[in-house]
């Protein structure tokens, strides 16, 4: 390959960039005419990505956004979203992405906790008015950024940020508490995470990737770094559904797809509809993480989709912890989460997986939460249980923290439980995650009812939770009514493992 911007050596050199904007600038200088982002009939090269992001940055500056300004954005996966995010990185603003399907409760908390001075929304999107919601929750500096972005003269911009170790990213995770936690990342931690992913997957400039998940997820920045390191494009999907999305995969010759276990199962189900024809002829690799992967799913994908499957382990606090590599033995790809990359230390303490490395976050917005999550040696306590194989691959065996992972998204059981306790027909409640072949886990509510209450069924309970402001992806899909929840004999704590055994 004679492209000077391709190859592992070039990617390693680019990975040493101090800031995300420096990485954008260096990639644009290397391969300005190579495509970077593809969406429907639109294409943006790396050179245009750099130039347009600078113009957007200048437009934001005219609106009052400056270095250190806190800007929240809740936008779908679009070229404009990537441009806005890079423009904020060029200015040196602090940005806090919010998943598009979050609603009043989560959005209000994120804006309040981050002290956001500006809020970019898509207007009305998929039947929901985000601008009206922004007004309801008292957001400041609201502006729409769906298909039109601010624009100005880049000559007026101040110098880009020189440090990549300042916390300029606030991502949100539910964890085990009812309120989300603001996770502090730096440009360097995001570059480190994306580098780990790119090198493990053995990417090349000839690949064509895809982003079919919300770009506001930390995986969005993670994936963008891989494009910038190796100089290949990605197809963006504002709405992902099969079989509708297949035409775009085929038209652009996608070689790399995935996202999470739920994506693997969707592709596999479509392949089974046409067993004699390869679903995506150019596809060589499915990759992702975010939820448990049954070993048999690996073998089904390889056999039926005719591509490799590499699965990894990450979290909002450390977007890339381990990753399977196409060169790993099949039994390791099927039964483990892959191996930690160079620069990521894993320590197993009392069965718990703990982490230290450049890709690990700086902590949380709440200093008290930060003090709890790091041990005395500076290792992040993940709350996940696991072990390392003799080859150095990680096997996850369970979770200490009470969180449900549905389609790669973390859901706080406590948040749902607290809302259930406000229902007049509920005396006590426990929310658990149960294994699901499509979603990874499904949300199951187990309730006790007060004496004389009318029998409770799933549909009206879901309507109650929806009216209370709970996001659709957190709504229970299963309801079990029991005479009494199982509890221990000391503090009367509900024994959720018994519920999982009973209803799983």
From TrEMBL:
Residues 415-489 form the AMP-binding enzyme C-terminal domain. Keywords: Ligase. Residues 25-365 form the AMP-dependent synthetase/ligase domain. One of its GO terms (molecular function) is medium-chain fatty acid-CoA ligase activity. SUPFAM superfamilies: Acetyl-CoA synthetase-like. One of its GO terms (biological process) is fatty acid metabolic process. PROSITE patterns: AMP_BINDING (PS00455). Gene3D superfamilies: 3.30.300.30, N-terminal domain of ligase-like. It holds the Pfam family AMP-binding_C. Transmembrane segments: none annotated. InterPro entries: AMP-bd_C (IPR025110), AMP-bd_C_sf (IPR045851), AMP-binding_CS (IPR020845), AMP-dep_synth/lig_dom (IPR000873), ANL_N_sf (IPR042099). PANTHER family: ACYL-COA SYNTHETASE (PTHR43201), MEDIUM-CHAIN ACYL-COA LIGASE ACSF2, MITOCHONDRIAL (PTHR43201:SF5). This is Cyclohexanecarboxylate-CoA ligase. It comes from Streptomyces jumonjinensis. The lineage of its organism: Bacteria, Bacillati, Actinomycetota, Actinomycetes, Kitasatosporales.
């Amino acid at each position: 390959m004679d492209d000077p911007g391709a190859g592992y050596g070039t990617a390693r050199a680019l990975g040493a960039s101090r800031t995300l904007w420096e990485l954008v600038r260096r990639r644009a200088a290397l391969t300005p005419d190579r495509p970077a982002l593809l969406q429907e009939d639109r294409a943006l090269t790396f050179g245009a990505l750099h130039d347009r992001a600078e113009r957007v940055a200048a437009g934001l500056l005219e609106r009052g956004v400056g270095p250190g300004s806190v800007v929240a954005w809740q936008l779908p996966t679009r070229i404009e979203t990537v441009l806005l995010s890079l423009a904020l990185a060029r200015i040196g603003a602090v940005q806090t992405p919010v998943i598009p399907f979050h609603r009043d409760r989560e959005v209000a908390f994120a804006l309040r906790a981050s002290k956001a001075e500006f809020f970019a929304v898509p207007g009305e999107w998929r039947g929901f008015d985000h601008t009206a919601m922004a007004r309801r929750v008292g957001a400041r500096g609201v502006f729409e950024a769906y298909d039109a972005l601010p624009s100005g003269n880049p000559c007026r911009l101040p110098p880009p940020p020189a440090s990549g170790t300042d916390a300029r990213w606030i991502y949100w995770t539910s964890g085990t508490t009812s309120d989300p936690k603001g996770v502090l990342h730096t440009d360097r931690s995001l570059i480190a995470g994306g580098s780990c992913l790119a090198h493990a997957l053995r990417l090349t400039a000839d690949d064509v990737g895809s982003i079919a998940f919300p770009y506001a997820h930390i995986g969005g920045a993670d994936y963008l770094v891989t494009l910038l390191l190796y100089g290949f494009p990605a197809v963006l999907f504002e709405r992902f559904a099969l079989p509708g999305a297949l035409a775009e995969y085929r038209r652009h010759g996608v070689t790399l797809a995935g996202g999470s276990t739920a994506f693997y199962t969707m592709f596999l189900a479509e392949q089974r509809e046409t067993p004699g024809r390869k679903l995506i002829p150019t596809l060589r690799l499915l990759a992702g993480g975010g939820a448990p992967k049954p070993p048999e799913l690996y073998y089904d994908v390889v056999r039926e989709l005719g591509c490799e499957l590499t699965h990894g382990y990450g979290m909002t606090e450390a977007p890339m912890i381990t990753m399977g590599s196409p060169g790993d033995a099949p039994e390791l790809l099927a039964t483990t989460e892959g191996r930690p990359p160079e620069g990521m230390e894993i320590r197993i303490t009392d069965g718990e997986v703990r982490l230290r490395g450049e890709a690990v976050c700086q902590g949380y917005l709440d200093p008290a939460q930060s003090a709890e999550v790091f041990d005395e040696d500076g290792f992040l306590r993940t709350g996940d249980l696991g072990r390392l194989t003799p080859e150095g691959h990680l096997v996850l065996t369970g979770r200490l923290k009470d969180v449900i992972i549905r389609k790669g998204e973390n859901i706080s059981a406590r948040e749902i439980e607290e809302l259930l306790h406000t229902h007049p027909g509920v005396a006590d409640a426990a929310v658990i995650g149960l294994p699901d072949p499509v979603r990874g886990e499904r949300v199951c509510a187990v309730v006790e009812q007060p004496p004389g209450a009318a029998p409770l069924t799933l549909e009206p309970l879901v309507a109650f939770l929806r009216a209370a402001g709970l996001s659709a992806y957190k709504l229970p899909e299963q309801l079990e009514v029991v005479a009494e929840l199982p509890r221990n004999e000391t503090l009367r704590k509900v024994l959720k493992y018994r519920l999982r055994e009973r209803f799983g």
